Amino acid sequence: MALKNVLALVVLLGVVGVSFVKAYDNSESNPERYNPGTTGNLYNDYYGNKCTNVEEIVRNVTYQYVSANPTLAAALLRMHFHDCFVRGCDGSVLIKSPNNDAERDAVPNLTLRGYEVVEAAKAALEIACPGVVSCADVLALVARDAVFYIDGPWWPVPLGRRDGRISNISDANSLPSPFANVETLKKNFADKGLNTKDLVVLSGAHTIGVSSCALINRRIYNFTGKGDFDPAMDPNYVKILKERCPPTDFTTSVDMDPTSADKFDSHYFDAVYQNKGLFISDSTLLKDSYTKFYILQQAVLNLNTFNDDFLDSMVKLGFVGILTGDQGEIRNKCDRIN
């Protein structure tokens, strides 16, 4: 380890102090204890005799699609995140509107992919156990299985979510922005019952998948309106991005993890530590003592806790804003209310 990295870590430890450990306490082992701001619980055996093979059915369909197109893993994980951050994990992002005014029509959701996987899994479940399994649960399972298929972590998905009946384009404004600073991001997550550790850990999902030149154009070409780039970025990385994204190119894809965007690993934190975070929302994680310390743990100390931390945060995410009991409905088709 380079001397400057050791010194930086020592200084940071002195700043963060003992209180850091408490701020990162995510130690609940019972999924029912992850229940931020909801009125119901989820259970691993929720469907029981009503649909005994629910996870196997969803897994088989998901593997069929992801084996043919591994990029769907990142897409489905993103879809689940976007669903949970808007009105909770209620499958509302799946609903189509004839007036193009549903969540999926909002600008941040126009690039969502993988709806066909959720629809296919739901269709298979309707054959096996009609009217039983919610689309919200299907999406949560599909996201987990897709990530696991590409050798990412497996996490338990407690079940029992009900489907929402409301999907408004304006509600998508609650999604965290790739242009947000760390304080705004912390508030976004806190509003959903998630903490600072969840923020930095779930940001690590950017280890897989791609974005587009459109989202970084200003950052690399005209950050302050003077033809400059964001000084928080490594100049050599900016040069590589400019080769990939000419000034008038807004459509070419860009890997979110510059070294291994097709592999679920901790290299995202290496990139952020090296000032190669693609978005402002990535780079800004170095401006908060807690999130920076976590990045140092993964990138400098190589503690290799990311996978375990990710599964904990994903379980928590799956409880955000859930509908249970007699709330909502069980949709017959995921893209429309009954």
UniProtKB/TrEMBL annotation:
Domain Plant heme peroxidase family profile: 41-338
UniProt-annotated binding residues for heme b: H206
Residues annotated as binding substrate: P176
SUPFAM superfamilies per the UniProt record, alphabetical: Heme-dependent peroxidases
Keywords: Calcium, Disulfide bond, Glycoprotein, Heme, Hydrogen peroxide, Iron, Metal-binding, Oxidoreductase, Peroxidase, Secreted, Signal
Described function: Removal of H(2)O(2), oxidation of toxic reductants, biosynthesis and degradation of lignin, suberization, auxin catabolism, response to environmental stresses such as wounding, pathogen attack and oxidative stress. These functions might be dependent on each isozyme/isoform in each plant tissue.
Protein name, per record: Peroxidase
Active site as annotated: H82
Any one of the GO CC terms: extracellular region
Catalytically driven reaction(s): 2 a phenolic donor + H2O2 = 2 a phenolic radical donor + 2 H2O
A molecular-function term among this protein's GO annotations: lactoperoxidase activity
PROSITE patterns with a match to the protein in the record: PEROXIDASE_1, PEROXIDASE_2, PEROXIDASE_4
EC number annotated for this UniProt entry: 1.11.1.7
Family stated for the protein in its record: Belongs to the peroxidase family. Ascorbate peroxidase subfamily. Belongs to the peroxidase family. Classical plant (class III) peroxidase subfamily.
Species whose genome carries this gene: Eruca vesicaria subsp. sativa
Any one GO BP annotation for this protein: hydrogen peroxide catabolic process
Subcellular location: Secreted
Binding site for Ca(2+) 1: D83, V86, G88, D90, S92, E103
Cofactor dependence: heme b; Ca(2+)
Residue numbers marked as site, Transition state stabilizer: R78
UniProt: Ca(2+) 2 binding residues: T207, D257, D265
Range of residues in the leader sequence: 1-23
Disulfide bond positions: C51-C129, C84-C89, C135-C334, C213-C245
Bound cofactor: record note: Binds 1 heme b (iron(II)-protoporphyrin IX) group per subunit. Binds 2 calcium ions per subunit.
